[in-house]
Design brief:
Blueprint lengths: L11 H4 L2 H4 L1 H25 L2 H27 L15 H26 L9 H28 L1 H30 L3 H29 L9 H9 L4 E13 L2 E10 L5 H16 L3 E7 L4 H5 L3
Helix pairs in contact: 3-4, 3-6, 4-5, 4-7, 4-8, 5-7, 5-8, 6-7, 7-8
Length: 307
């Protein structure tokens, strides 16, 4: 005896999906950063500043990542018409986060390589444009950070965009610091030093986000969930003799899934245990989608499966 939820996948916006709720924040941030990217790239080329060009490169990655996040959020809201995506298209947002990671790593690598190539050289850098554009970039990024901050707590997709903007904010600060140091010392080496620091910072952020993306794609136990505690809680339900084949994973941000087999004592009402188990998983462990299978005894078929 088992239970299978009859989950017709409704559009995410209707179901309160985290990514869909914050789509407008992504849209406004995308518009701001895309506009400023053009300004920063042009000024960076004219001024000859590697720090400015590197920050523009990272901002270009932001534009792509934010655009992908917007598209992925839209895809995730679509109901499946093929009949083959039984969990819907929610994971599109996780793939968008993975793209953000790759973009960040690519920009970081480019900046570091360029910075190393400039060691020993003293390129002519116009500090005035650096300071002005760095300040304007800081303003744009702070606005985007304020827009995305709350959504980053709910959605891995928005978190990827948020991390991108954090790195951009650091880049804007770095550009201003480099311009100030060049003015103070007369040496353009600070442009290269700051560019290297920006690249290293972006790489660290990318690795942090990448670990979260891989954990979701690898179907690891959701962050903050103790699988032994879940097993103990299900085993503590009245009438449950044993719990096995328990699996829990994250479909996308805010959507945790679990399956388990519950072996019952003789004469126990299986329907009642199912209801209690689903309520327990939903209210105590925030697992909305749980499929529980009821068994009168631990079957040989279960023991024969080794994965």
């Amino acid at each position: 005896m088992g239970v299978g939820h009859g989950h017709g996948h409704q559009p995410a916006a209707a179901s309160g999906h985290a990514g869909a709720r914050h789509r407008w924040r992504l849209g406004v941030s995308f518009g701001l950063i895309a506009t400023f990217f053009v300004v920063e790239l042009v000024v960076g080329i004219i001024s000859g500043s590697l720090a400015l060009i590197s920050d523009a490169g990272h901002m270009a990655a932001d534009v792509v990542a934010l655009g992908a996040a917007l598209v992925a959020t839209k895809i995730a809201t679509r109901a499946d018409s093929s009949g083959r995506r039984t969990y819907g298209s929610y994971r599109a947002e996780v793939f968008a986060s993975g793209l953000a990671v790759l973009m960040m790593l690519g920009v970081a690598a480019y900046v570091v390589v360029e910075a190393i190539g400039r060691i020993g050289a003293e390129p002519d850098v116009a500090t005035g444009p650096m300071l002005v554009v760095g300040f304007l970039g800081l303003v744009v990024n702070v606005i985007a950070l304020l827009l995305l901050r709350s959504g980053a707590q709910d959605s891995l997709n928005v978190k990827g965009a948020y991390f991108e903007v954090i790195a951009d904010t650091a880049g804007s600060v770095g550009v201003m610091v480099a311009g100030g140091l060049i003015l103070a010392t007369g040496s353009s080496i600070w442009d290269t030093v700051v560019a290297f620091a920006i690249g290293a910072f972006v790489a660290v952020r990318a690795v942090m986000l990448g670990r979260e993306v891989l954990a979701v794609l690898g179907q690891h136990v959701p962050a903050g969930l103790d699988i032994d505690e879940v097993t103990g809680a299900l085993g503590g339900l009245d009438g449950v003799r044993d719990v096995h084949d328990l699996h829990a994973w994250t479909l996308t941000s805010g959507m945790n899934v679990a399956t388990a087999h519950l072996v019952l004592l003789d004469g126990v009402d299986g329907a009642g245990v199912l209801r209690e188990g689903q309520v327990l998983l939903r209210e105590r462990f925030q697992i909305e989608h749980a499929t529980l299978q009821i068994e009168g005894h631990r079957s040989a078929a279960c023991d024969a499966v080794t994965w």
